[in-house]
Design brief:
Length: 69
Amino acid sequence: MVNDMPMGPVCAVKAQPTVQDTTADLWFDTEQLAQRARQRVNFRLEISYKRALRDVRQDFAAARGRLGL
């Protein structure tokens, strides 16, 4: 076999590009993205719950004040 490259057989093999396996998730770590989304949703739910609880307490206190209790 004649080597067309101006280098030895070992260097010629090393110089060949290697093909890497590609997947659909090459650019995105879907598990990490899903975990972050769940954290954001849980945080928003917690904030919404605390605001609603605060509003109910304020309304209850206002109602008691209107009744003179």
